[in-house]
User: Fold this.
Amino acid sequence: MTEDEAIRRLRAAGCVFAEDEAAVLTGVAAGGPELAALVERRCAGEPLEQVVGFADFGGVRVRLRPGVFVPRLRSELLVEVAVEEAGRHPAPLVVDLCCGSGALGLAVREKVSGVCLHVADLDPAAVACAEENLGENVHRGDLFDALPAELTGRIDVLLANVPYVATRHIPFLPAEARDHEPRTALDGGDDGLTVFRAVLAGAGTWLAPGGLLLSEVTEAQVEAAIAAVAGNGLTPAVVTDDDRDARVITARR
Ligand SMILES: C[S@@+](CC[C@H](N)C(=O)[O-])C[C@H]1O[C@@H](n2cnc3c(N)ncnc32)[C@H](O)[C@@H]1O
Assistant:
């Protein structure tokens, strides 16, 4: 398959950015037969990042695997807030809980010197992917259960881009997410805040005094998220970026 043929095939499958995507796919394919195989995966609805095996996020190139959550552009706001916070410490301990590919932690580690980074996820595919991206301090398990005990009470910056889609909204997600990202990466329970509340419940114990938890929420969740933070004895704040349709709730110990 040639690049022109790839453009035509992608267009016929309804791909809006057929030229751009054909260029990316051509760039990674070793030859015509491989390009044809990649184009077919994309036409079947697999996210481009999973097909090519990487995503460019927050200034870093992150390796991705099929079935691993694709980091979203809006989550760069989480990275920006985390970088600012981590930059206040000479040797910050940063944890990326619910790390998926490890994209957020990797981006922070690239931007702030002296960072000690630990990441964790429940999903073995995500953990394997994060290991490829980060090399060390990658843990598997349920939220804080995954972390080494010696991090207790020492975390300066706790990134937790948890699943936060309300269960009833899952059917309305784009097919790329519904069909190619695990439900555990998306479903945040009744109001989308179930996993966030579980993180909050442990945050007071795991954060250092003055440490900061950061999580992404939707506009509709902001009020309930603020109440949940305050209810756990932490100090809430919200950072918003309308251009990226991004909202970060922070909770300071
Ligand atoms: C929305 S994705 C975010 C991934 C990554 N932080 C990012 O922004 O690209 C949520 C991640 O949380 C993980 N996850 C869900 N429930 C979890 C739990 N109880 N403990 C640890 N990880 C969990 C999923 O496997 C998934 O990788």
About this structure: Residues 69, 71, 75, 98-101, 103-104, 121-123, 126, 142-143, 161-163, 184-185, 195 surround S-adenosylmethionine (CB under 6 Å). The longest strand covers residues 207-216. The chain has a mean pLDDT of 96.
